[in-house]
Amino acid sequence: MKSHDLHSWDVTPAQAREIQERLGSRVIRRDMFRSIERVCGVDVGFCGERAVAACVVLSFPDLEILDHSVHSAKVTFPYIPGLLSFREIPSLLPALEALRIAPDLIIADGQGIAHGRGIGLASHLGLLVDTPTIGCAKSRLMGRYTEPGAEKGDWEYLYGDDTVIGAVVRTRRSVKPLFVSIGHGIALHSAVFYVLGCCRKYRITEPVRLAHRLAGGGVI
Fold first, then answer.
1. CB 60 within 8 A of CB 37
2. Domain residue spans in the chain?
3. What number does CATH give the domain 13-17+35-134+185-215?
4. Predicted pLDDT of residue 121
5. How many CB atoms neighbour CB 106 within 10 A?
């Protein structure tokens, strides 16, 4: 799959924040698809000064592996909370471009619009590849919420001030919830639906779980 050249990656943290401010208004917060048949999980691992990006495409709803790719690159941006996309996306884009089967939906291990400038890793990535994207994080970056019920499928809204910025979703009975938010090109209720549909035996979604294993040097 191809990506758009929206900005330079050789930037300072201050310039990165300016880019986020500029791109945030371009995020589409509604479904821009008719059906989803292929879901891709993406994750990035780190080994010293190198990032290892992995993508795994699964069929939906069967969750059978269709394609995968890995790309390793030198890390050029420091770890700064809120600017994760500038550290991880430069290695993710070549991995996505190497896929033979283009996904209809991407689930990223990171934030979408539940971010201080409304454009976390998932939203940034979705804009670059012009593909519906969900932010599915294991921890909260911002916002307040009421703890959801204990059963799988229970969820509550995540609020930033008085605005809904995501959902806190229980994906397995009595385990910690995931923090789901719009990445790009999808509505929040649809994002919750696809996250739950991609969770089987584990807390995290199957596409992201497999991408995480692949980025860590494992096999799928």
1. yes
2. 13-17+35-134+185-215
3. 3.30.2170.10
4. 97
5. 29
Residue at token pair 């994002």: 191
Nearest to 118 by CA among 20, 30, 188: 20
Q: What is the pTM of this model?
A: 0.95
CA distance 44 to 42: 7
Region at 185 (left for phi over 0; alpha for psi -120 to 50; beta for the rest): left
Rounded Cα–Cα distance for residues 187 and 183 (Å):
9
What is the rounded average pLDDT of the residues 197-214?
A: 96
Digit-coded pLDDT (tens) for 167-197: 999 999 999 999 999 999 999 999 999 999 9
Buried-exposed string 184-216: b where 16+ CB fall within 10 A, e elsewhere: bbbebebbbebbbebbeeeebbbbbbbbbbbbe
Contact 96, 3 (CB under 8 A): yes
The answer to whether 92 touches 70, Cβ cutoff 8 Å, is no
**What is each CA distance from 146 to 111, 116, 179, in whole angstroms?**
19, 20, 12
Q: Which amino acid is at 85?
A: S
Are 92 and 42 in contact by the 8 Å Cβ rule? The answer is: yes
User: Helices 121-129 and 13-24 sit at what angle, rounded to 10 degrees?
Assistant: 70
